[in-house]
Every structure is written in C-alpha cells, then in structure tokens.
C-alpha cells in the first residue's frame, strides 16, 4: 500500500500488542485546510495520528473518539475526532503560531501548546460517553498519550508520534506507533523491550529512511516474533459535516433565535472548525428552516 494505512498485531506469544501507521496524506490535507504554521502542523498531525492509533480497537458504527488538548501556550490547543472506520478530523485553535525551534533544533510543539490538559472522550452512541482527563506531562503529545494509558487505563505503553516537514512547509512524513504490554507479561520481556525502545530512532527518522510501519515494528520487535494480524487503509482527512447537518444545528437554536437572524436581513454564515468550511444560509433558507422544523 502506498497510501496512509495502519497495521496491528501481537508479539512475544501474545505478551505484547502493537499498532503502527503512516499518515502523511492525512496530515498534509489538514495542513492545507487549516493553513497551519509548521509547528501547529506538527502538533495537529501528532494528535491526529494518536487518534487513529487509539481508535483502532473500536468496532461500533457510532463509536467516536475525541481527543482535546487545552494549553496556556500560543497555540491554545487542538481537537481531534476519530471513528471506527479509520476516519479522522481535527483542528488547531490557533493555526498560525510562529515560535523559535527548541533546544535541539526541532519544531517546538511543547512550547506551542504549553501547560494544560488532555481530555479523552469515547462515545459509543449509546448512554453517557466515557471521559478521562490528565494534566499534560510534556506537551510533546506522545509522552502525554503514554501517560494517559498508564494512569487512566493502567496499561504500560510506549507511544511514538512524528511529523517531518519539507522545506516548503508541506508534510514530508507523518506517523507513529503504539506498543503495549499485556497482563502476565514476563519481566525478561519487559527488560528486553525497554532496551530495544531506548535505542530506537525517532519515528520521523525511520519514515524518512524509507521504513514502512511494518518495517518499524519488525525492527523494534524482531526478538519477539511479531505476528501481523491486520493491515487496513485509513481514510483521508474526513469531516462528515454538510449543509443538511448544519441545518439541524440551526433548528436546535430555536425559533426565536432564527427569527432574530432573519430580522437582520442578511445571509448567515456557519463555520465548521474541523474542516474549515463555511456554509452560507440565505434569509429565505432560514425561513425554510423554521417552516421545516414546524412541520
């Protein structure tokens, strides 16, 4: 496969599970839609990749995972939503953050987001959504997702995420992996895996060298006989908004607010933050919305 895709499987006779993916096309589409600066492209791309990793186990048609970061840095935060079909969408609160590189000359995602929180919300479409919130431990996102798994799900995990930019500020590479220890894992497996991960280059270094997700997993877990159970194409940046859906949002505002909008006698514009699309409703269309909601 040459497009964005996700693989998953187990290793060490079922003591380790893994998911890995490449998301260059998805992240580039997000950059194009939101006109993000390089550091916010990197931040959004990492969280979108995390959303696709974390949603890999979802099966229900209505299952939806939402990740939200709120920080006190100039970027202010990010919102990402991923579904069970491998679709993902997201947006930055402030897309045009320009700050110096960090101490090692890399895009300073931590500096852009600052201190704050990561919220994880899982909604199956039935009953109350499950939600959990943690303090950001680094702002680099991969470490924060790792901390989330350790504290909220008590699952020892290693998460790596990366976005590499071209000189023209388009996305060259993007992707990541999630490796988790399952209950009953042997101490020898833990020690060997920790050593292996410690010597593993960054995701962007591996992707830029031509490694595919399966190559990355093979390199990391070669001593644990990885078994690849599934390879699945993940959808492009996907937003399910439409004028019809936005119309339902307008209906929910109520008749009085819609009549106030009509009295202004000018078109009403509704903006979708996820895909950066504007929907314009004429005065007549607003009147039709009231008429349809009454019928």
What is the number of helices? Answer: 10
What integer is the average pLDDT? 91
Please list the strands of the largest sheet in the order they lie side by side.
8-9-2-1-10
Order of helices and strands: EEHHEEEHEEHEEHHHEHHEEH
DSSP E strands, number:
12
Major sheet size, sense and barrel closure = 5 strands, antiparallel
Structural class: alpha+beta
Low-pLDDT stretches are none
- The proportion of residues in beta strands is 25-35%
In percent, how helical is the residue content? 25-40%
Global morphology: globular
- Report the end-to-end length measured between terminal Cα atoms: 50 Å
Radius of gyration: 21 Å
Structural summary, described in words:
The protein is α+β, with helices and mostly antiparallel strands and 295 residues long. It is 35% helix and 29% strand. It has 10 helices and 12 strands. Strands 8-9-2-1-10 form a 5-stranded antiparallel sheet, with helices on both faces. A hairpin with a 5-residue loop joins strand 8 (157-165) and strand 9. Helix 1 (24-34) packs across helix 2 and helix 9 (255-263) packs antiparallel against helix 10. It is globular, with a radius of gyration of 21 Å. It starts with a strand and ends with a helix. The mean pLDDT is 91.
């Amino acid at each position: 496969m040459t497009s964005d895709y996700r693989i998953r499987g187990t290793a060490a006779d079922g003591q380790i599970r893994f998911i890995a993916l490449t998301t260059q096309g998805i992240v580039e589409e997000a950059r194009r839609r939101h006109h993000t600066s390089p550091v916010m492209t990197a931040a959004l791309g990492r969280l979108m990749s995390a959303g696709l990793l974390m949603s890999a186990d979802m099966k229900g048609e209505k299952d939806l995972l939402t990740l939200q970061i709120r920080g006190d840095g100039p970027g202010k935060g990010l919102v990402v939503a991923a579904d069970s079909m491998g679709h993902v969408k997201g947006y930055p609160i402030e897309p045009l953050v320009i700050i110096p590189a960090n101490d090692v000359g890399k895009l300073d995602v931590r500096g852009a987001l600052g201190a704050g929180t990561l919220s994880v919300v899982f909604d199956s479409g039935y009953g109350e959504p499950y939600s959990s919130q943690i303090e950001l431990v680094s702002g680099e996102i991969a470490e924060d997702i790792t901390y989330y798994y350790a504290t909220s799900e008590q699952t020892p995990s290693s998460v790596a995420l990366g976005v590499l930019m071209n000189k023209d500020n388009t996305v060259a590479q993007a992707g990541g992996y999630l490796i988790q220890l399952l209950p009953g894992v042997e101490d020898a497996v833990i020690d060997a895996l920790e050593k292996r991960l410690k010597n593993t280059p960054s995701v962007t270094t591996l992707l830029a060298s031509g490694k595919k997700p399966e190559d990355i997993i093979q390199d990391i877990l070669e001593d644990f006989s990885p078994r690849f159970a599934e390879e699945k194409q993940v959808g492009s940046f996907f937003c399910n908004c439409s004028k019809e859906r936005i119309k339902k949002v307008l209906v929910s505002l109520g008749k009085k607010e819609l009549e106030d909008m009509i009295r202004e006698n000018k078109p009403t514009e509704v903006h979708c933050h996820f895909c950066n699309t504007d929907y314009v409703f004429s005065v007549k269309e607003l009147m039709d919305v009231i008429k349809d909601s009454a019928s």
